[in-house]
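ligand=protoporphyrin IX containing FE
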Amino acid sequence: MFNQLDMLTLQMYWWVIVSLLAGLLVFMFFVQGGQTLLWQIGRTEEEKTMIVNSLGRKWELGYTTLVLFGGAMFAAFPLFYSVSFGGAFWVWLSILFSFSIQAVAYEFRKKPNNFLGAKGYETFLLINGILGVILIGTAVATMFSGANFERGEFNFSIWKHPLRGLEAAFNLFNVLLGIALFFLARTMGAMYFLNNIDDEVIRERSRKEVGINFAAFLPVFLIFAVWLLLRSGVDTSSTMPAMQPYKYALSLVQMPAVAILLLTGVAIVLYGVYATWFQNSKNGLWFTGPGAVLTVFSVLLLAGLNHASFYPSNADIKSSLTIQNASSSRFTLVTMSYVSLFVPVVLGYIAIVWRAMDSKKITREEGQNPDSSAY
Amino acid sequence: MIEQLQQGTVEWGRATFALTALYHFLFVPLTLGLSFIIAFMESMYVKTGNDEWKKITKFWMKLFGINFAIGVATGLILEFEFGTHWANYSWLVGDIFGAPLAIEGLFAFFLEATFFAVMFFGWDRVSKGFHLFSTWVVAVGSNLSAFWILVANGWMQNPVGTHFNPDTMRNEMLSFLEVALSPTAIDKFAHTTAAGFIVSSLFVMGISAWFILKKRNLRLSRVSIVTASTFGLLATMFIILTGDKSAHDVAHTQPAKLAAMEALYDGDSGVGITAIGYLNPNKKLGDKEPEFIGPTVELPFALSLLSFHDFNAYIPGMNDLVYGNKERGVMSASERIEKGKKAIEDLRSYKKAKESGDKLAADAYLASFRENEKHFGYGFLKNPEEIIPPVGITFYSFHLMVGLGFYLLVLFAVVLHFSMIHALENQKWLLWIVFLSFPLGWVATEAGWIVAEVGRQPWAIQDMLPVSIASTIIDTGSVIAAFFLFAALFTILAIAELGIMIAQIRKFREEDHV
Ligand code: HEM
């Protein structure tokens, strides 16, 4: 079935998959957001432990989504993998650092003789929650604002900025997305606690945090969104790539389906917050989370589709990456497309296990039972 | 553009990758093997309903979890290091190499991530059966992930199912099945998972032996030792078989590696193996110095037999590979370099002709390129001697691994024997040997990786892409700084992990647990 598709359709299909993974990754940032709320919502040792146990059964899913995002980019758009990861060296290494310390923090935090003490590992969680999310947001924003590279013979690339990627963090547009994601993550983190922890005190604080963090998220996100619609972008529909004013706004008009997806996503995000705040619902996450997936998904579609460049070069516009010039061969794309049919299977079993594990909520009492809490 | 690649960047990039990979592989083998040992123990619990088994399962599971965390942390870094440190590589072969990585993420990591949570938090949340199922899924998932990453590594050693596309200027996949089911990959998978079982068996046996010496947790230790020595014995028999297959494979695809593994300078028919010997440090390619100093232990014909399953098979030595051997039909490295340079030149001309629309000329250049394509990678080398990996480290690592393989075979057999006749606890000497042997699985494993990876220098991808052009174009200073950051992070994590493990083992008393 995939064999019959033409090359451009395959490339678009893969951009859709990559965008979806990015959306799911942002959903899973509720773990990172939750980590930054550890002190605010967990005021006693017992409460902190409940929170850690609650996030502790979910963090690996987000982590794995990040790994899969990298793998999918590598397999489908290897030129991006090469140009961006090698070029923006320090940004990606910082992101890696902030995630690898997350991987040990849960397991090591409370274990005797753990060298850094519980505080040390809680700091790891905090660093991951703040730096990891903001830097990923910043890096993703460069898919619109561009980066400083040049491609040469054999497509080997050279980075034109001595900060090797960290310069992206000094660009307001990029940082806005990072900060928006940070507050969104915290909003969703608090929603997750509402859903997952059966405790009045924690619920009360979580509900409050949903309000505060969403109030911070909304204006930042709106400024970013408006800026995105106003900015020009690289257009590659003619043989020479050129800057086009209002590129992304035009794309929304030319791809109304994406516009509808985007608006729907934002509406669902809002509904989740509304339900939490005004209807006392514990299920806000089940709206805001998927809403975030849709929103991020459609924003990323704008980056790659409609002859846009999903990694514009500010140093040399001809070097800009598009889904066409950065993609794998037809054979690999077809093969990987068959593999991608398993994505729903994976999502399916994750959902089943999630339900089975969460049907019993976390309580104060179970901290005493070694069978139910591991950390 | 390649000219901008500094040699220091390549060397430090290699150092970083070696550091991360060797460190990662301190933890992974334990995940690979221990997961099955635990799954077996939990199966016994579910089958017999005996809480003793549950206690044993949970003890080893706890150590498993501590270890798993670091494997996950370093695994992420490894995956992205291909991009951050080896950007040129990522582009030139990403079309092939990215696929197994993505598949690993989708098929294996999600299984692990999802069911790991059930394993650790699910005892009172899901049914016994579902919990057991989850434990098995984690075991299968982690070994499945080993499979896909070894497919990727196997392809680097023996790049099958691929061709160079002159229009995109990169290598592209022609057959997924050839890549995924390449004999090199399958051998590696078999050999490496067996190594994981050996490391894990030694780990379980070592800790149990220590408990017995301390007269503690005797019930747990007895059961654990029997289980582990059985697993270990089977795995060691299997690793020797697959090691033989690996050597056979190396002989066919990486002759320079094989020659370095055995310090074979001058090829011959019916070549033996120098099982024990001290290499002559002054020996150089092309000279007439002896290979070894002092007495050696020889196994006649062994190398020919091992490599080609034929007593009289010809095996080219390092001198033959570098300087050529017309009689035996071995092309010299300088000739291959010539041909490689011609291929690179043809490729450039092809591109120019194509751009200027001269189809006839383009076709001619392409045809000429195809003639020399299999020497393409050699065109980036400077001296013929470069094709030989460092001999000393390859030779000693290989011999250490093989020697340990036979030692461990005996050890597992003896331990199993004494456990079966219930006489282990009186054999203090043996318990001490078991306890002290427990790092040896790691030693053999790391030695194995050194053989595989150092032995394939100068190639990132055999005959296709030398490491010298595979790296990211970046200043050496950045790479050095990153190296030390990684080293610091890994050291901190290792200290933490070791401290936690030791504390968990020390404080454990089986009486206290239900
Ligand atoms: C006893 C006989 C053994 C033989 C003949 C043998 C043979 C080999 C060979 C030829 C390689 C290199 C493969 C390549 O470069 O592609 C290798 C690699 C390796 N060996 Fe062994 N080995 C033996 C025992 C062991 C033991 C006891 C362990 C660990 C417990 C071990 C662990 C490894 C590992 C981890 C690698 C790297 C992965 C790979 O290339 O497969 N080996 N072995």
